[in-house]
UniProtKB/TrEMBL annotation:
Gene Ontology CC: one annotated term: membrane
Transmembrane segments: 6-28
Keyword Transmembrane helix in annotation: yes
Keywords of this entry: Membrane, Transmembrane, Transmembrane helix
Entry's family note: Belongs to the LemA family.
Protein localization: Membrane
InterPro entries attached to this UniProt entry: LemA-like_dom_sf, MamQ_LemA
Tree of life domain: Bacteria
Annotated source species: Salicibibacter halophilus
Membrane topology note: Single-pass membrane protein
Name of the protein in question: LemA family protein
Pfam families on file: LemA (PF04011)
Length: 199
């Protein structure tokens, strides 16, 4: 009788130990997954940031090139420089940074439109090369933006799902904000850098 009671207690403790071990393993696994997803979000943002920096660095060369041919277009050049400077505010949130990027894109459209009024500018090799580089950079920003939003969606889903939501709450994993799409970009707006027109 005493032997049967002893075996029962032993089995009870083994079940408790297995349960605790399972809980600890689940906890560590969930934590590591959340760290992985959070790092993916940061990596996705870093890709956007690299392209924004590249665009930021290309603009002074473009402005200088245009200035040489279109000296009377000071207002347009000033708008581009101001929009560029807004992108460099370290206090901006990610969405504010993308909003500044959208303003810059609009100002750049007006700048590229000047080429129609200045044939010498249009034929300038440096201007053409800068156009191509900026167009390529804009495409990379758009792609990186999509990647960032899909990564944030996966991360946020993990944070809200059971059982990782318990781990996320204890270790202060907070939801990330997805990058918003401006209203005008929801209407299939096409920016053509060859003409500077929007259609």
């Amino acid at each position: 009788m005493e032997t049967g009671l002893g075996v029962g207690i032993l089995i009870f403790f083994i079940v408790i130990i297995i349960g605790v071990a399972g809980l600890v393993i689940t906890w560590f696994t969930s934590y590591n997954r959340l760290v992985k997803y959070r790092n993916w979000v940061e990596e996705a943002w870093a890709q956007i940031d690299v392209q924004l920096k590249r665009r930021y660095d290309l603009i002074p060369n473009l402005v200088e090139t245009v200035k040489g041919y279109a000296q009377h277009e000071q207002e347009t050049l000033t708008q581009v420089i101001e929009a560029r400077n807004q992108m460099n505010n370290p206090d901006n949130s990610r969405n504010e940074q993308m909003a500044a990027n959208n303003q810059l894109e609009s100002a750049m459209g007006r700048l590229f439109a000047l080429r129609e009024a200045y044939p010498d500018l249009k034929a300038n090799q440096n201007f053409q090369q800068l156009q191509e580089e900026l167009t390529s950079t804009e495409n990379k920003i758009a792609y990186s933006r999509q990647l960032y939003n899909s990564t944030v969606m996966e991360y946020n889903t993990k944070i809200q799902s059971i059982p990782t939501n318990f781990v996320a709450g204890v270790h202060n994993f907070i939801q990330q904000e997805m990058l918003e799409t401006p209203e005008e970009q929801r209407e299939n707006v096409k920016v053509d850098f060859n003409t500077g027109d929007r259609s």
